[in-house]
Amino acid sequence: MLETRSLCKRFGETLALDRVSLSVKPGEIYCLLGANGDGKTTLINVFLGFLTSDGGEALVDGLDVARNSLATKARLAYIPEQVMLYGALTGIENLRYFAALATGTEPSATDAERLLTAAGLDAAATRRRVATYSKGMRQKVGIAVAMAKGARALLLDEPTSGLDPKAAAEFSQLLRRSRDEGVAILATTHDLFHAKQTGSRIGIMRQGSLVEEVSAADLSHADLEALYLEHMR
Amino acid sequence: MSPVVRIARREALEMWRDGRLVAAALIALALLATAFAIDWQRQQTYEIERRAAQALDYDTWLKQSDRHPHDAAHQGMHVFKPLPALASIDPGITPYAGSTIWLQAHRQSEMRFRAVQDATGLQRFGNLSVAWVLQVLAPLIVIVLGFNMLSGEREQGTLKQTLSLGVRLRDIVFGKALALVSAITLLLSPALIALIVAVATSERASDDGLRAVALAASYAAYFAIAVAVVLAISALARSSRASIAWLLALWIVGVTLLPRAAADLARELYRSPSRAEFSKALDGELSAAHEAAWKREFSTTKRWGTELPLARWGEALRLDDRVGYEVMDKHFAALWQSFADQQHAQALAGTATPILALRKASMSLAGTDFASHRHFAQAAERHRRTMQDIISEDLVHHADPRGAGHFDYQANHDLWEKIPPFNYAPPNMATAIKEAGISLSALALNLAFAFCFLAFALRYRARRLL
Asked: B162 in contact with A at a CB cutoff of 8 Å?
């Protein structure tokens, strides 16, 4: 569903992405580990068409992002570390707005509320202005938008950083549910624990290169930590 | 519903909820309503008084007692410039130009050009009028409502969020433009109502109606320019702070400094004489022309002396007048030309800053520009000459035959009646459009520039979304 082939991206002298090839299948959660500046966010931005690559390909559902940027975006949902919403609008209004822009039809207020509560938001909270929402609540709205959109792939950029453990656990739960529905998920993270808990596969990026790719089931949390630290040395 | 409309609707809802729209609407309403109420009331009162005064003046003329016609000519008549209905929207040079001209013997009155001379200095913060609010303050409102429309969403990350849904940047910008245009239309609707009231209460409603349509279109173009520029800067700026700083700088330069500089420059380029210089030059040439004419016709250069028998004084007056017409035409034409050149230079400068183009177009369409003033002054002068010619002719036929008894002649009501009342028809819409030609073209050019600028800003931003 999400695939890169020898993807390169250069910022001046530095190679932000150095021949990265990876693939995320439907029903799979791929966690991308790495330090800040190792190219994880750049990869997501290439998938979203916000950056153009300097070599190789990024494909969504077999479509080249560079040439089909609207069609590929239609299949994706993007959830950044901080889901940005319109503060003066309520949760329901935000969801209806974004869903309408994404799909061309506006969900009814009832449908919107159902989607939001399915994403774990309190029914009462859905009618409050988003300016009062916590980070975790905003992410639930982001997930609800992705569900409303019927996205077949999720791009998550540091989704759990700054979430309290309970919120992070809830979020992981949501991701697993999406995975079970056949959504392909690519998540960047610093959080080894989260990666081990939710990921199907784990990749480690170092200075623009994908240096390691393992199956989450194959190693313990301690093994993962050792592996990660070895690469980061 | 298209994404453009959805985005516009959300934008409008936000503006409404965060109170910006209400605050701006209240300020705009207060200013526009005050300005219009004052100017409209002034215009209505002025017109009533003017009509009364014009009738009274002619009545006084008709009812004067029997007297020597030249005495009557010296007392003369007064004509009062009508104030067009749309002066309640844009008073133009009205506050600076005179409204009354004394039609008297021998000489074209000077007050009119002194007023116009002042008028060229009007390119500064003017009196409160609907036009001033729309020209000077409305762009500021567009800035306040729109400066962070794109820069703010970029800073907050909502732009990226929206684009990630597969929405085109172009649609986002059009949506914002639509929201901004709707907000401006709502905020400035009191001005539109004022325009309708002004036309509805006008004596020349059909001509003023056409003028009002052209006025509304010109102002719409001006606001479209403001919207395009504000969105372009908001798209280009690194941050909302940078955006507001750029926009305010642009407003200060474009709306206040450049017009001032253009007015001063135009005055330097096409220098008009001071009142004293003008009078001196005119007097000099008048007396030279008179002396030459007297020498030719009466073989003397000493005017109104014993050398000329009283039996020819009527004839001499007629000669004096006619010689004077030519000289005055030449001097006034040159003077007016210098003012007209200044106006045109400023209209041309309207290509650099749209407010100059709009200001000129607005005055011309409202009928309160320099050209309208000149049109009236010329009509008044024609009337003065009609009066002079009739009176001199009367003297030649009735006073001159009396020889030494020239001054015993007294004309009566029959002569007074021969002088027609002053009926003035202001120029029509077509003339106004022609007069506004350069400035309307400059405005159109600005609009094209603004759209190109916005298109450029969009292309730039589309390549640098992060």
From this structure: yes
